[in-house]
Amino acid sequence: MIALPKPLACLRQLWRDRSGVAFVEFAYALPILLVLSMSGLEIANLAVNNMRVSQAAMHIGDNASRIGDRDALVAQKIYESDINDILIGMNIQAGSQTDLFENGRVIISSLEMNSDGGQWIHWQRCMGKKNVASAYGPEGTGATGTDFKGMGVDGKELKATSGQAVIFVEVIYDYQPIIGNDWAMRHINNGEIRSTAAFNVRGSRDLSGIFQTNPPATVRSCNKFEAS
Question: I need a labelling partner for 160 at 20 to 30 A (CA). Which of 23, 84, 110, 196 fits?
Fold first, then answer.
């Protein structure tokens, strides 16, 4: 057997050595695995937050359509304290991870028929620090005339009938990403999650307005941007 010069023997031994191949392959694959893992985690987080926001809108709308005193002889009255209870309860249900009112806003509107037969937003209550208004206008929109078509999808707007009301809820939430805000801004509409829900008021309700308790409860005006 012909002996190779020492430098060539070292190169031949190095060429045959496979002890570091797995480590090198792992080093190449690690960035791909990290991207896939973090993307999957972010998508799962987005799905959970979408579900929470959607459920918040549904629960608030459903509960707001049911509230009112239960005197069988007169139309049901609703109070500011009733609306406050719904909003505070929803914040607890949404959980501290979502922190709905710190990172978003809830807008509750009562859609009713005006004296001209058109649609109007009789009253509106809001809670949350996010500075955003209703997509359909403030309280009082459509008070006269028939220009205001209602609330909801263009061309398929929801309308209230005479003597009835529709509770329309909008929840707008600034998504809190795991990876970073740049990802959220690129993949979500300005980093916002929006959800709406509407329910007809159950039973006979006094539509003259929202009443106060004694002592008076906090009025959740849409001119305020508060989390509690």
Answer: 84
